[in-house]
Amino acid sequence: MSHGAPEPTELCLLRHAHAGDSMTWDQADELRPLTEKGRRQAERVGRLLAGAGFVPDALLTSPLVRARETAEIVGDVLGVRVREEPRLGAPLDLAVLDAILDDAGRPRRVLIVGHDPDFSELVSELVGGSPIFMRKGALALIDVERPLEPGGGDLRWLVPPDLLRG
User: Fold this and answer.
1) Cα dist. 56→13, 31, 33, 46, 90 in Å?
2) Interatomic CA distance for residues 55 and 38, integer angstroms
3) CA 99/CA 132 separation, integer angstroms
4) For residue 1, is pLDDT > 50?
C-alpha cells in the first residue's frame, strides 16, 4: 500500500453541446435547448468516454436546459445518474468549483457539464498555460490535486468537437 500523496482527482469538464445562436433565441436564455447537431455531439461524447473507460463517480450539470440535456444524453450512454448543481449555472471560479466538488462527496472521477467563458478560464487557470478555448461540445480531462490551485492541474485530454464527427 502506497503512503505517498493522495491520488489526483480526474476532473472532466464538458462544455454543453451545440445549442444554436443565442441571438436568434427569443425566450429566456436558460431555456435554450440543444439543436439536433448538439444532441448528436452529446451522444458522441458519451460514446468517446465509454470507449475510453471513463465512467465518472459523479456527473454534475448546470441547470440550464442546454447543459442539462447534454449531461442527460452523456449520462444515458454511460449509465450514470445526472445531478443538477445550481452553482454551475452561475459565474464559476476555482473556489466555487472546489466547494462543488466537496459538496458532491469529493468524487475521485467527476464529469461536470457547464458553460463558457467559465470553462475556458478554468481549464487555462488549472493547467497554467496559454489561454485555452472550450468550444461547444469540447471536453477536457485534467488531473488535479485538491484544493484546486492555479497551475495545479495536468491536462490529459483536450478533445475539440470537430474530432467527434461521425
Assistant:
1) 11, 26, 24, 11, 23
2) 21
3) 23
4) no
